[in-house]
Every structure is written in C-alpha cells, then in structure tokens.
C-alpha cells in the first residue's frame, strides 16, 4: 500500500516538474495545446505499460489520438474502439490509422496457452484465440516462445487491419480523402517499430521507393521501405 502511494505521489511530482520544464522551454506550449487538437495519427495499440505510443514515437501531446486495449484487438462490435475510430476519422480527420501490436504481449501469451485466465479476460481474448486456431500449424512449428508470441502478434495485427479496412467510416475516408491504414509491430527489446505492410499499402510494395513523413510538433515519423522511424527536428 505504501509503495503504491509513493509511486502515485512520485508521479504527481514528476508531472509538476514536467509541466514546469515544458512551459519554461516553450511558454506557448500549453496555451497552444489548450486551444484545440488536430492530430494526424490515430493509434490503436496495446494497454501494456511498455508501449506508450506518444513516447515511443518521440511525439508530443496533441500529436496522436489513441485507443489502447489488452492485446490491441479490433473488434467490430466493441463500441469503445468503434467510437474512437469514428471520432478520429470522421471528425478529427486523421491522415493515418496505425494498428500496432508488440513483442512479449501478455495477451498473446495467454492466447497461446491452453489454460483459462479467468473473469472476462478469456472472453476478451477470444478473437486472438481464434487467430491461434486458424494458424495452429504454423504457430506450433515455432519452437521459440518469444518468436511464437511475435508471430501471433503479427497475425493479430493482420486480422485487426482487415476489420479496420471493412469499417464503413474508414472505407469512406480512404475513398474520399486518401486515409492510410497501417499495421505495425513494436519490438520492446530494441524500441523499434516495424511496418508490416498491411492496410492501404498492401500489395503496393511497401519496401519500394517513397516515404511518408508525418510531422508532429517536435518530431517526425517517417514510413519508409516497410519501416517506421522517428527523428527529432
Ligand atoms: Zn500487449
């Protein structure tokens, strides 16, 4: 209990220091932030504490609209995910939807196991268990547990991108204003994000030629040759 209180108090004092630092660095930062948002990226990711999207992208508050849940599952009947997608795509008019899984995902590990997690978790993970069943032979053939978890995470992103591409709000935006949908995987061990090539660029040869630059306030995200990389301006 004491440790929990301490970490909360530490977080509050850390916030205080951060806000002071940001305001000192750029007195207009918070007033500008308070005037509204126009993020270019919708990020759909895992709730895992090691995958904080704005931090790992090297971006800033105001750059990324976010929905995260356990194992970054995109389910068409989940009103929470659907509302976030609709608001980001139809109202904020983001230019990119990024669905990102990650290595060493606890949800993936649970779906690869044969036991019950308990509570509502088994129900939530059902789509991922279906991915496992559909790819049983391939997954069973991967001896290394870490590599197997990465592979099911990739397959999960592929399945999620298919759901996104079938979403009518997404389809309209792709057709009418060139919205792009990306499927990525974050490797926790290296900090790198890999573009898996699913989505609107599927079949267009993601590893050939051009690059797409998404500029945040203080950094930019570059989609190039099947990889996403970040640089600070
Ligand atoms: Zn996860």
Automatic annotation (TrEMBL):
Its EC number is 4.2.1.1. Keywords: Lyase, Metal-binding, Zinc. The keyword Lyase applies. One of its GO terms (molecular function) is zinc ion binding. It is an enzyme of class 4 (lyase). Gene3D superfamilies: Carbonic anhydrase (3.40.1050.10). GO terms for biological process: carbon utilization; cellular response to carbon dioxide; cellular response to oxidative stress. Pfam families: Pro_CA. InterPro entries: Carbonic_anhydrase, Carbonic_anhydrase_CS, Carbonic_anhydrase_sf. SUPFAM superfamilies: beta-carbonic anhydrase, cab (SSF53056). It comes from the Eukaryota. Zn(2+) binds at residues 46, 48, 102, 105. Reversible hydration of carbon dioxide. Belongs to the beta-class carbonic anhydrase family. This is Carbonic anhydrase. It comes from Staphylotrichum tortipilum.
